[in-house]
Design a protein that fits this description.
Length: about 400
């Protein structure tokens, strides 16, 4: 009998972390590598947020806090939801966790029983299916092809719902595609959900503020108030405020669910880092200039990457509405052979050959549940992106 839990057989390590780790190892070995795998802003945390953290340390705010967040931060989160999303929550309806991932994980652990199904539109963030599996549920991936803008349609959602469905995980703008749902598109989905009162909605709104052009962000409970009592609206400070390492995420929803999530957290990590909570309070209540400034930079980078990738033979790259990712199709590259002699049988082979032959690290599409494609994170410098895309163009031109 194995010493390790059988539950581990149901999951796999994060492919995005694996790609970043591999790129860093090659760099350490002296290789010329450009990593486009990491999903975090390359900008520093704004100074006012860092100053608030230092002030918290100097004030001795270094002790245990309430398990799921300090009252001041919970009130600020309620104010944020009211101000930006038109959603009314009380502090008792708010949970603060060690990153957005923990809030999602807590919700699934607190609600899933063996056989419960969770609908996950694909391409999806790599952690969604594995978190469902660890919690004992069954992920139901629904392929959303490039032809639908990588978005779930009402017809797809209707077809995926069964009596066993417990949750729909909804992520907009999306990691890995950057696809964002308009209010009308989202209304089509919420109309379906109204016909199935046993299905709850777990939103991942982490990229809410990273939207481009004239796109306007909206979230399910905002679009359809009748879903309020069966929606957990999740967000965090990681992407909007360049605070990935601070590890603060939050969620708001029905009190009974929030209490259950708190019970899970009380027996796992207990409270999130006290200093990070005070920093997050400043992020939500202090100056918001950084958001607009970073959005301008990310939109410029998006346009650069989309334009250059669409010039590479065999690649088709849609223009995303938000986040800092693109998800180009490589359907035109499949079956060809690279200049280094690798047969491009699938997108994993493409990504492997690209790294080995050009030093550009991307994440292959199969990791996100939809092939043949790959994900580029353009959260790096314009110069690095220009060089990386030039290498990708050269790689594709060398395919025979």
């Amino acid at each position: 009998m194995s010493f390790l839990s059988a539950s581990l057989d149901r999951v796999k390590p994060s492919p995005t972390i694996a790609v970043t780790t591999k790129a860093n190892e090659l760099k350490a070995a002296g290789k010329d590598v450009i990593g486009l795998g990491a999903g975090e802003p390359d900008f520093d945390t704004p100074q006012n947020i860092k100053d608030a953290a230092k002030a918290a340390i100097d004030a001795g705010k270094t002790k245990y806090t309430p398990v799921d967040g300090i009252p001041e931060l919970k009130r600020a989160i309620c104010d944020k939801f009211k101000r930006e999303n038109g959603l009314n929550y009380t502090p008792a309806q708010v949970s603060v966790g060690t990153g957005g991932k923990q809030t999602l994980y807590n919700a699934l652990m607190a609600t899933l029983n063996p056989g419960d199904e969770v609908i996950i539109p694909a391409p999806y963030w790599v952690s969604y299916p594995d978190m469902v599996l660890l919690a004992g549920g069954e992920p139901v991936a629904v392929a959303c092809p490039m032809e639908t803008g990588y978005k779930l349609t009402p017809e797809m959602l209707e077809a995926a719902i069964t009596p066993k469905t417990k949750w729909l995980i909804f992520n907009s703008p999306s990691n890995p595609t950057g696809a964002g749902y308009s209010r009308d598109e989202l209304k089509g989905l919420t109309d379906v959900l109204l016909r199935h009162p046993h299905v709850w909605v777990l939103t991942d709104d982490m990229y809410e503020h990273l939207v481009f052009d004239d796109f306007e962000f909206c979230t399910p409970a905002q679009v359809e108030p009748r879903l309020y009592d069966r929606t957990l609206t999740c967000n965090g400070v990681s992407k909007a405020y360049a605070m990935t390492g601070w590890r603060i995420g939050y969620a708001a929803g029905p009190v009974e669910l929030i209490r259950a999530m708190g019970k899970i957290q009380s027996q796992s990590t207990s409270n999130p880092c006290s200093i990070s909570q005070w920093a997050a309070l400043e992020a939500l209540t202090g100056p918001q200039d950084y958001i607009a400034e970073s959005r301008v930079a990310f939109q410029r980078r998006r346009d650069l990457v989309v334009g250059m990738l669409n010039e590479a033979p065999g690649i088709t790259c849609p223009v995303p509405e938000g986040a800092f990712y693109v998800y180009p199709s490589i359907a035109g590259c499949i079956g060809k052979t690279s200049a280094g002699g690798t047969v491009i049988a699938d997108d994993e082979a493409f990504a492997t050959a690209l790294l080995e032959e050009t030093g550009v690290a991307v994440v292959f599409g199969a990791a996100f549940g939809l092939s043949p494609a790959f994900r580029v994170s353009y959260a790096t410098s314009d110069a690095a992106l220009t060089e990386a895309c030039t290498r990708i163009q050269t790689f594709c031109k060398g395919l025979k």
